[in-house]
Amino acid sequence: LGTEATRANIIEGLKNNSLIRNIFGTNLVQITDKGQELINAIASCGVNEILSPLTTAIFESRFSDIVNSPEEKDTVIKEVEAFIEAKTRQILDSKILLTTNFYKNATGSE
Fold it and tell me: What is the pTM of this model?
């Protein structure tokens, strides 16, 4: 999930948005109903790549290219921006519907 540098912030953001929660008394997390609804909605749009660890690995590799070859920076940024823009457009064009409970369920309780 993300890179080592961003993982803690990503997990905290998922918790703050009630998409995951800690399993009581442990460091383990589990997806909430709200989180599962979002994953199902994204999957229904045909953009499963954004849910894939392989996509993260590919982006991490490309970001490493920037470190090893700074002249690659503009190319890598343009590739990532194009990917994000295309997937965002695909999601918006699909007009996915989330239940009213998705918006009401701010606490993550089921």
Answer: 0.61
